[in-house]
Amino acid sequence: MPDRLVRAAFPANFPVIGTVYGSVMKQTVKALYIGRGAVSVWFRYCLILFDLASIVFFVATANIPHGPGLIAVSWAVGLIILLDFAARMWIAKDRKKLLFKIYTLADLVVIASLILDPFLTGSLAFLRILRALRLIHSYHLLHDLRRDSEFFRTHEDAVIAAVNLLVFIFATSTAVLVFYIPQDSQTPYIDALYFTMATLTTTGFGDITLNSPGGKLFSVFIMVVGVALFVRLAQAIFMPQKVRHKCPNCGLFRHDPDAVHCKHCGETLRIKTGGVG
């Protein structure tokens, strides 16, 4: 190719233009993910809506055969999750730290399970259970709620305890659905959820039981962990609530909503409240 054509196709400042463009793109993506503007907040809430939609899809298709249509949808969902994961890694200051966060690992597991969908057999069906981890990804919404919602700041312990319990119920119900509910059930997920809740609350109606040794051990796991999470939620609801406010003197981070002085050091506090003068 003649030199003049090369120069015309690739101007002398091409690397600079590419660098500037890349920097602008990175700043734009970073603003969407960590910015405080209205557009950024709405973008993150839209991601949460996508999380919820993907969870509904995973539940609805957990124990049915995956034909070409479902495989295509699974790959499309996996591609969106992969793009979200790549964007977070691109803008992260510490990529190694981000990589080992629980919701990042959950995303990787979900992406892998979606990619392997066409190759799933009876022995690999457990991978679909791991998609329940997608709900963990929603924990990063807590940062936005802590900043934007006075209600969340006041009732943070109860909200987080409720989310923990919901994650557990969803994951265990999906496991029961895949491994223990008969394929000929008319309402498979309702049966799985019904058994999980009856076991978790130790009600034990006995109309749906897991008779195998593995099923019995799994029932014990649901009772032990589920009851602990349920009690934690009850404590968060009925015990006096604490608000997040860092004491400027000693750094104590949790105080009563109406606290005027820090109980640890006596420093005067100025906790914002929703009251009127």
From TrEMBL:
Span of domain Potassium channel: 166-236
Gene Ontology MF term list: potassium channel activity
GO cellular component terms, A-Z: membrane
Residue ranges of the TM segments: 6-24, 45-64, 70-91, 98-116, 158-180, 192-211, 217-238
Main location: membrane
Compartment(s): Membrane
UniProt keywords, alphabetically: Ion channel, Ion transport, Membrane, Potassium, Potassium channel, Potassium transport, Transmembrane, Transmembrane helix, Transport
Membrane topology: Multi-pass membrane protein
Gene3D superfamilies, per the entry: 1.10.287.70, Voltage-gated potassium channels. Chain C
Pfam families registered for this protein in UniProt: Ion_trans_2
Name of the protein: Ion channel
Biological source species: Ruegeria arenilitoris
